[in-house]
Amino acid sequence: MTCTEHQRRRHITLVSGAARRDTEAFEELYDEFADSVYAEATRILGPSSLREDAAQDAWLRIWRGAGSYDPDHGSVATWISVIARRSAIDLLRRARCRSREVLDCSRARGQVALVPSDVCVEDVVVARSVAAGVRAALPLLPSKEREIVTLAYFGDMSHSDVADRTGSPIGTVKTRMTRAHGRLRDLLIGAAAVSSPRRFESPQ
To answer: In whole angstroms, what is the distance from residue 10 CA to residue 6 CA?
Structure first.
């Protein structure tokens, strides 16, 4: 995406606002770059269900790392693209590691993995492990975020479907999903960590 000087300054202002925990600035930044973040996840992960997780992880990193952005090191578009790429690659690596662990365990026990040949094993492994943690953490979410996560993750609904079901604007659905994903990720990380889990600083 080619940016004019006006766009470049506006993007910097939005990131600066996000660094100050300005939720409106963050939402504008999301609206501006959501498609490019998802496209980067798709480029690396292909037509995989992991794309959504990678995109959500990227936005969580952008929210947390907004204060570290330095305009002298590149444009906001480039900075966001790098974060999206790293999120997708990290997720792919974790999925492959989990996939190998499951397959090795199955071989050691003389078992055959009960996964159809046309289904990606990496997706299955990640989905199973994440789903259990998400279900356990759902009661800790605010009611509106819990409703959206339930519909999207366990009702297999798209953002548009969730917006129709709840009567909320799709932008609101996306924002709540981003916040909920951040809380869930921190809760899941906190559950796995023995000491001092870092909690997500929710936009107010």
So the answer is: 6
Phi, psi of 21 (to 5 degrees): 65, 35
Burial of residue 5 (number of CB atoms within 10 Å: 0-12, 13-18, 19+): exposed
Look at the block and give the residue holding tokens 């504008």.
28
Largest CA distance in the chain: 62
Q: How many CB atoms lie within 10 A of CB 92?
A: 18
Contact 156, 132 (CB under 8 A): no
Is 89 exposed, middle or buried, given 0-12, 13-18 or 19+ CB atoms closer than 10 A? middle
66, 128, 164, 183 from 29: Cα distances, Å: 11, 32, 24, 19
pLDDT for 41-69, tens place per residue? 888 887 667 788 888 899 999 999 999 99
